[in-house]
Amino acid sequence: SNSIQVALTDNDDNSNENKIVQVHAKDGIVIATGASPKEPVLDGSSSSLEGIHYVTYEDVFELDKLPKTMTVVGGGPIGCELAQAFSRFGIDVTIIAEQLLPRNEPEVSSTLEEVFTKEGIRIVKGRIGVEDIAVAPGKEGGHHVINVNNNNIEGELLLLAVGRKPVVHGMNLEQIGVELNSQTGGIAVDDQLRSSIKGVYAAGDCTGDQQFTHYAGYQGAVAARNALLPFTDPGNCGR
């Protein structure tokens, strides 16, 4: 049988100790651990954001009150969606990004810029590092000031939307020989969602592939089917 060792952290346990669980499966193991926000470290800087009120897409919905101003760092789908949503709540929103939706065609980016500008969302083109973010002088509550192209942008709340990373650590994957994709950092899989180890499959965001909810659900179904059933029809077992 296949076996993976997993370290579980109980948020309600004040001991802060990981619980080690050995997972065994006769037929196959499907890893679908998802992804998490990338750490607030831009351009490889090790500077700190201590004292600055910032959120990611995971905890932005836990706000108990709306800020008056918000700065969004990142022009991907998450940054753009949340920027527009908060702007429609009446918040003064600024987006800092080299380009909006950079993975799409240039026409998509330019069209979105026009829409956002009409809606009152300020777009500042540029790339920043953590060293460009500081606590706003004379302000309380974690207000920030960001230097972009020698221009200072101040805000009450900072939303970091600088990408997502596959959750692949804490399962001893390296020890059992599960290979990771060097480009995405996710679990490397083939068209049948098989990893480099027989009987171990991966699906969804932990593969580092297209990180969409509907696609993750589809991959989960494919991986579960392939883990349990024999490959009788390669065309039907693939993605």
From TrEMBL:
Q: Which GO terms describe its molecular function?
A: flavin adenine dinucleotide binding; NAD(P)H dehydrogenase (quinone) activity
Q: Which Pfam families match?
A: Pyr_redox_2
The record ties this protein, via InterPro entries, to: FAD/NAD-bd_sf (IPR036188), FAD/NAD-binding_dom (IPR023753)
Q: Which intervals hold domain FAD/NAD(P)-binding? A: 23-220
Q: What is this protein called?
A: FAD/NAD(P)-binding domain-containing protein
